[in-house]
């Protein structure tokens, strides 16, 4: 009789040490302990005073340690930190923690990567960080070109087809090839990492009322309908383009597993309205599982005990669920 496989921990990179990442990691461990074992990659000098932590030398130790202390796989930084005060000297350490987390997942020592928020300017100032953010850096480390950002909560999953660009640039950036790739990566991620054999995907229109037959915009008529019809059936269960203002009430959400939206706010406003504290950032298209809380470093409240750990807790739980799928 074979023994059940030993669970693998999640690797949690520390993020910006002057932000709320270290204190949220501790709060998350206090809530989850051994129900969702993770190891923290960072400098223990940056943890809040009085934290119950234990240094480990390899990822496997985290599973046993988690019940009594937060497992720490040490990454030495250049300097201590003061909550709320960015120190560019620590930028290289933040990058090293991310790289170490990716290495653990790629080697099979950890089941997934969860990343605490980084401060992009601090990384640029201190280490000439050449990437716009976490997602692009992880795509580089995973050696992939196309990835998709999903925001997920118990209430809703949304994917913006275009992300951090000006609204005026969206119609030019939103091509048929881009939307097709977004649909393909989203569907594959829902199948592989969310365990949905036949995911249902709703696609929003770009214009008000999905263009209203050309009266309020022409993209839906010119190419979006044809693309959706071409991909429909077989591996894809698609609907749309839908007017975005009628896609997110309860009855509409029951008809799909994820919604693909055409620009940043079209996707993020509904999920942050429905479930602000529990939204999780998921990167689809990587060769490993990656989740992150859906908030920033919040340096203005760091060290004051005000930070809400709900999103990080949900990010760790979702990473565990995705790994099981």
Short key terms for the protein model shown above:
single chain; 325 residues; alpha/beta; Isopropylmalate Dehydrogenase; 2 domains; twelve-stranded mixed β-sheet; 36% helix; 17% strand; globular; pyridoxine biosynthesis
Task: Give structural notes.
It catalyses: 4-(phosphooxy)-L-threonine + NAD(+) = 3-amino-2-oxopropyl phosphate + CO2 + NADH. Belongs to the PdxA family. The protein has 2 domains: 1-145 and 296-325, Isopropylmalate Dehydrogenase, CATH 3.40.718.10; 155-274, Isopropylmalate Dehydrogenase (3-Layer(aba) Sandwich). The mean pLDDT is 94. The longest helix has 19 residues, at 176-194. It has a 12-stranded mixed beta sheet with strand order 3-4-2-1-5-12-11-6-7-10-8-9, sandwiched between helices. The protein is built from 11 helices and 12 strands. The protein is globular. The relative contact order is 0.17. Helix 1 (21-32) crosses helix 11 and helix 3 (91-106) packs across helix 4 (120-127). The chain is of the alpha/beta class and 325 residues long. Helix content is 36%, strand content 17%. The two termini are 24 Å apart.
